[in-house]
Design goal:
single chain, mainly alpha, 4 helices, globular
């Protein structure tokens, strides 16, 4: 068996991480949308997509999981 160094691909997109970095700063969906120059619906879509990828049922669970994984910091 070869000793290949496996580098996992990123689970979340750059934009999904950006949205969650703003969420942990206690920003609203509207504030995040304004700062990232996207619609509120797009912010909610990014959050929903990330939650689905992480296999969690809520924003707070997603934040906890992302912190645990080292993807975001408080």
């Amino acid at each position: 068996m070869k000793d290949n160094k496996y580098k996992p691909t990123q689970l979340l997109t750059k934009r999904e991480k950006e949205v969650f970095k703003h969420l942990v700063q206690d920003k609203t969906t509207k504030e995040i949308a304004q700062e990232l120059f996207i619609s509120e619906k797009t912010v909610r879509n990014h959050i929903s997509n990330a939650m689905q990828k992480l296999g969690v049922k809520g924003r707070s669970q997603a934040v906890v999981e992302l912190i645990r994984m080292g993807e975001i910091e408080l």
